[in-house]
C-alpha cells in the first residue's frame, strides 16, 4: 500500500480494507510509519514512535494505525512524560482502562504525540519537545493541548488519534487544523484506574479525526463505565455510529457570535459563523442570536477555572516530583507551569470548595439554557491560529492567574462545556479565504446528548463536506 493511497482512507475505511483482505495489517502499518518518517520532522507531532507494537487480533478497527497523546492514559512499559522535563523517563506500570479499550478495538498504536507541559496551554510548544506545527501553515500553532494528535491526523499520518480536553484541548486543535473533534460528556469515557476524575472533573478523553463516522465509531469502542468509576451516565440505546445515519430534526439553536469576555471575534471568524448560521437555517433549523447568561461574570468564571487548573496542576507536580526525586524549579518546569504550581499551593481547601460552588451556578444556568435550546453555536476560536512563539511571549513575566487569563483569552468559548460536563464538538465548516486556514464551528448540547451532536455533525458533513480540502503538509502528496 502506497503512503499516498493510505492517507486517503479514514479509520473505518482502512478497517474494511484489512477485514476484506484487500491489504494486510503489516502493509497499512508500513504506510503509516513511512508517512511518520517523512512528515513528522516537518510538523513535529510525535515525541516517540513505537515500531514494535503487535498486530491486532480482533476488534472493529483491527489493524488501524493510531496514536496516543503523551498524557492522560498509560501504556504498560511505555514512557509517560506529560510533555515535561519533570516527568522525563517515567514509565507506566500498566495499561489504563482507556488504553486497554483501544487495544480491544483493534487499534495499533504507533507512538506518542506531543503536548504542552501538563496540558496547561492551548498551544503545543513545550520546551520538552519543541513546537508542533500546523500542517496548513507551518509557521502557525496546531493548537493544544492535543496539538500533536491534531497535527498528525491533519497531515495524514494516522486517520484518528487520542486526545484529552480539560478546557478545549480536543476542540481547539481540531479547529486549528481542520478536523472534527468531539468532547464527550463527563463520565462517558473512563479515566481510571489510577484516578477517578482529572482536573476535578473538567477533563475528559476523546479523539480527533477527519470524519464524523470515525469519531462516532471510536466513541462506541471506548465509552461506558469501568469497575469502580465514581458515577455512571445514561448510555445510548443505539450506537453512536448509528446516530450518524439519522437526521437531527429541526433544532433550536442559540447563536453566540462573540465571546463573553467583551472581545470581538476576528472578522473572518465572525463572517464564517454568520454564514454557517444561515446554512443551518437553510437546513431547517431555527437559529436565534442570544445573550448568554452563564450564572457568573466572566472574571468569576476565569477565576473559578483558574482555581481548578492551578490546584490540580500543583498536586500533580508534587506527586511527580516525589516519584522522581526531582526538584520543582526552572530546571524541570516552564515559567507558566511554575506559576500555576505556586498559585495552586497558596490556595486553600475553602478556595477550591468555593470554586465548586461557582461551578454549580454555571451548570444550573446552562441546564436552564438547554431546556430552551437544543444546541449552543459559537466559533470554536475567536481568531485564526497564532504564529508559533506568539502565545508564549513574555511567559516568564506572568503569574498563575495571568497565565489563565492568557489561556482563556485565546480560547474563550470552549471551557464552558468542561465546567458543565456537557458534550461539545468543533466542526471544520469554514476556511479563511485570505490564508486558507480552517475555521472551526463549536456546537454544544445538553448533558449526555452526544447523539444529538453526532446527528447534526453528520448532516453538516453531508451538506458542507470538508474532506476535499487538504493542508500543504499532507501524506497524500508523498
C-alpha end-to-end distance: 12 Å
Could you state the order of secondary-structure elements as H and E?
HHHEEHEEEEEHEHEEHHEHEHHHEHHEEH
What is the CATH topology assignment? Answer: Amidase signature (AS) enzymes
Give the CATH architecture: Alpha-Beta Complex
Family: Belongs to the amidase family.
Protein name: Amidase family protein
Pfam family, one: Amidase
Organism: Pseudomonas fluorescens (strain Q2-87)
Explain what you see:
The protein is an alpha+beta fold. Helix content is 38%, strand content 15%. The protein has one domain (3-477): Amidase signature (AS) domain (Amidase signature (AS) enzymes), CATH 3.90.1300. It contains 15 helices and 15 strands. The strands form four sheets. Strands 8-10-9-14-15-13-11-12 form an eight-stranded mixed sheet, with helices on both faces. Helix 10 (298-324) crosses helix 13. This is Amidase family protein. Residues 31-454 form the Amidase domain. GO terms for molecular function: catalytic activity.
Amino acid at each position: 500500500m502506497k503512503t499516498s493511497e493510505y492517507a486517503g482512507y479514514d479509520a473505518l475505511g482502512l478497517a474494511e480494507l484489512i477485514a476484506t483482505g484487500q491489504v494486510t495489517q503489516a502493509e497499512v502499518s508500513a504506510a503509516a510509519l513511512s508517512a511518520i518518517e517523512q512528515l513528522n520532522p516537518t510538523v513535529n507531532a510525535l515525541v516517540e514512535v513505537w515500531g514494535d507494537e503487535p498486530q491486532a487480533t480482533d476488534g472493529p478497527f483491527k489493524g488501524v494505525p493510531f496514536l496516543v497523546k503523551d498524557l492522560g492514559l498509560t501504556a504498560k512499559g511505555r514512557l509517560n512524560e506529560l510533555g515535561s522535563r519533570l516527568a522525563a523517563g517515567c514509565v507506566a506500570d500498566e495499561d489504563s482502562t482507556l488504553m486497554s479499550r483501544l487495544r480491544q478495538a483493534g487499534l495499533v498504536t504507533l507512538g506518542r504525540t506531543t503536548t504542552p507541559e501538563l496540558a496547561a496551554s492551548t498551544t503545543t510548544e513545550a520546551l520538552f519537545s519543541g513546537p508542533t506545527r500546523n500542517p496548513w501553515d507551518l509557521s502557525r500553532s496546531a493548537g493544544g493541548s492535543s496539538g500533536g494528535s491534531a497535527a498528525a491526523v491533519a497531515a495524514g499520518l494516522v486517520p484518528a488519534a487520542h486526545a484529552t480536553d480539560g478546557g478545549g484541548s480536543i476542540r481547539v486543535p481540531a479547529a486549528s487544523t481542520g478536523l472534527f473533534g468531539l468532547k464527550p460528556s463527563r463520565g462517558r469515557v473512563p479515566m481510571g484506574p489510577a484516578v477517578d476524575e482529572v482536573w476535578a472533573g473538567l477533563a475528559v478523553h476523546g479523539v480527533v479525526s477527519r470524519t464524523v463516522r470515525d469519531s462516532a465509531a471510536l466513541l462506541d469502542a471506548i465509552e461506558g463505565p469501568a469497575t469502580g468509576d465514581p458515577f455512571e451516565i445514561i448510555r445510548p440505546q443505539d450506537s453512536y455510529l448509528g446516530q450518524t445515519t439519522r437526521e437531527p430534526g429541526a433544532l433550536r439553536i442559540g447563536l453566540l457570535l462573540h465571546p463573553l469576555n467583551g472581545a470581538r471575534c476576528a472578522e473572518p471568524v465572525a463572517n464564517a459563523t454568520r454564514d454557517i448560521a444561515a446554512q443551518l437555517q437553510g437546513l431547517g433549523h431555527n437559529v436565534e442570536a442570544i445573550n448568554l447568561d452563564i450564572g457568573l461574570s466572566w472574571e468569576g468564571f476565569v477565576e473559578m477555572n483558574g482555581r481548578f487548573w492551578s490546584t490540580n496542576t500543583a498536586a500533580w507536580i508534587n506527586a511527580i516530583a516525589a516519584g522522581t526525586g526531582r526538584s520543582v524549579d526552572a530546571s524541570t518546569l516552564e515559567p507558566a507551569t511554575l506559576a500555576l504550581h505556586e498559585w495552586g499551593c497558596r490556595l486553600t481547601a475553602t478556595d477550591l470548595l468555593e470554586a465548586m460552588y461557582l461551578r454549580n451556578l454555571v451548570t444550573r444556568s446552562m441546564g436552564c439554557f438547554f431546556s430552551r435550546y437544543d444546541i449552543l453555536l459559537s466559533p470554536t476560536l475567536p481568531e485564526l491560529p497564532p504564529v508559533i512563539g506568539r502565545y508564549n511571549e513574555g511567559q516568564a513575566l506572568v503569574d498563575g492567574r495571568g497565565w489563565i487569563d492568557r489561556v482563556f483569552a485565546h480560547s474563550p468559548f470552549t471551557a464552558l462545556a468542561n465546567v458543565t460536563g456537557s458534550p461539545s464538538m468543533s466542526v471544520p465548516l469554514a476556511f479563511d479565504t485570505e490564508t486558507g486556514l480552517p475555521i472551526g464551528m463549536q456546537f454544544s448540547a445538553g448533558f449526555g446528548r452526544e447523539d444529538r451532536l453526532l446527528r447534526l455533525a453528520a448532516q453538516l458533513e453531508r451538506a458542507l463536506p470538508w474532506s476535499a480540502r487538504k493542508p500543504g503538509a499532507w501524506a497524500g502528496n508523498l
